[in-house]
Amino acid sequence: MTMASTTSPLLVLLSAMAVAALVAAPVSSADLPSTFADIASKIPNPWSAFRNLTGCHFGEEQQGVAKLKDYLAHFGYLPESSGFTDIFDADLEEAIKVYQRNFGLNITGVMDATTVAQMMAPRCGVADVINGTSTMGASSHAHGRNLYSYFPGSPSWPRSKKRLTYAITDTAATTIDRATLSRVFARAFARWSAATTLNFTETASARDADITIGFHAGDHGDGEAFDGPLGTLAHAFSPTDGRFHLDAAEAWVAAGDVSRASSDVAVDLESVAVHEIGHLLGLGHSSEPGAIMYPTITSRTRKVDLASDDVVGIQSLYGGNPNFKGVPTTTPATSSRDMDSGAAGARSRPWDALVAVLAAAAGLVVAL
Questions:
Q1: Is 276 annotated as catalytic?
Q2: Least packed by Cβ within 10 Å: which of 160, 171, 254, 310?
Q3: Pick the catalytic residue: 61, 80, 224, 276?
Q4: For the residues 26-30, what does the mean pLDDT come to?
Q5: Residues annotated in the binding site for Ca(2+), as ranges?
Q6: What value does the mean pLDDT take over residues 172-191?
Q7: pTM of whole model > 0.70?
Q8: Where are the domains of the chain?
Q9: Are 93 and 40 in contact (CB under 8 A)?
Q10: In the chain, what are the helix, strand and coil shares in percent, each to the nearest 5?
Q11: Under CATH, which number does the domain 163-339 receive?
């Protein structure tokens, strides 16, 4: 059967519906067909220019490679340098392979589309590799289980210290009122205390607090400058430092449904807080996309429930709460793997359908 030379109204409608679903649905970089991987981060952010490096590989010289090296150095994959060049050298190839291994991508050493999409995703500012040691568990645990990790040396709060205090200290740079902030952070801390023997109490005095929380813009004196909307969202320090900083430039949502936010760059405050508290307690990043400690999260996404990987990791440090009821046996469709920007796994069937519809609209035949 031959395809008509003009496209039917039904086919146009189906194509439009598919495109609308693509724009509205949360995108997982590893779930995307390769031709659509760059859709994972259409909103401009500090790393949007990485799209121009798609396909770049060893031996090439291309403008923007130096910035890619800066990115990988910031997250620990390369040594810091003030003189990076635009040459795709062997060190960069190896750094990309480590990055791909950590995020469950195909280990090619090439800036393929899924790697580019993953690198453009908004993320935590804490490094994935510290002092040459990966804080992500992809290479240290077998068979995709127990992918949590700790900071080098496994620092933690003393076992004898069951009660930690926190203070919200720097709020001048955010428009969110203190009462709302108190509720958000109380819920975020409660998610960790529910699984452990730890308890958290807010205090008004930063001097007496074990943990201090603040909103900052740009360079704020800790050597980890923020970079504007949808770059590094926040960072926190390992025990027993206690500092937790959020980028004031983000469009934080502290109340209501972030998925319905009017801003395309809206970020759920509680979701990021739960992640950073994990760092404050000693957890590094996880290679499990459904875990709270996975490094990236998309805008307009809520992800606040601890996964089994998070629970096993934190209980190994502090013990378990005997009243903890465990993690949900099923994952809601609006969180965890489906909502994360870099979930690993095979291409999902909805994407196959999308490819088929779009290919049909273009007059192609696709065998699925």
A1: yes
A2: 160
A3: 276
A4: 38
A5: 210, 227-228, 247, 250
A6: 97
A7: yes
A8: 1-27+351-368, 29-120, 163-339
A9: no
A10: 35, 10, 55
A11: 3.40.390.10
Q: Over pLDDT 70: what percentage of the chain?
A: 75
User: Higher model confidence: residue 154 or residue 137?
Assistant: 154
Q: pLDDT tens across 82-129, in order?
A: 899 999 999 999 999 999 999 999 999 999 999 999 999 999 999 999
pLDDT at residue number 62: 98
pLDDT of residue 131: 86
- Helices of type H across the chain: 9-24, 65-74, 90-102, 113-119, 178-193, 269-280, 308-318, 336-339, 349-361
- Position 355, amino acid: V
CA nearest neighbour of 275 among 241, 319, 316, 310 = 310
Ranked by mean pLDDT, which of 33-42, 132-141, 280-289 comes out on top?
A: 280-289
**For residue 338, which phi and psi values (nearest 5 degrees)?**
-65, -30
Most distant CA pair in the chain, distance: 77
87 φ, ψ (degrees, to nearest 5)? -90, 130
Give the CA-trace dihedral at 51, 15, 344, 67, to 10 degrees. 10
Residue 334: pLDDT band (50, 70, 90) is: very low
Which residues participate in the annotated binding site? 124, 210, 220, 222, 227-228, 235, 245, 247, 250, 275, 279, 285, 293
CATH number belonging to the domain at 29-120, selected among 3.80.30.20, 1.20.1260.10, 3.30.479.30, 1.10.101.10: 1.10.101.10
Q: Which residues carry a binding-site annotation for Zn(2+)?
A: 124, 220, 222, 235, 245, 275, 279, 285, 293
Half-sphere exposure of 207 (CA within 13 A, CB side): 0
Q: What is the residue whose two structure tokens read 């062997």?
A: 90
Q: Which residues pair with 244 in a beta bridge?
A: 213, 236
CA–CA dist 118, 127 (Å, integer): 15
- Where is pLDDT greater, at 73 or 337? 73
Compute the distance between CA of residue 16 and CA of residue 366 in angstroms, rounded to an integer: 18
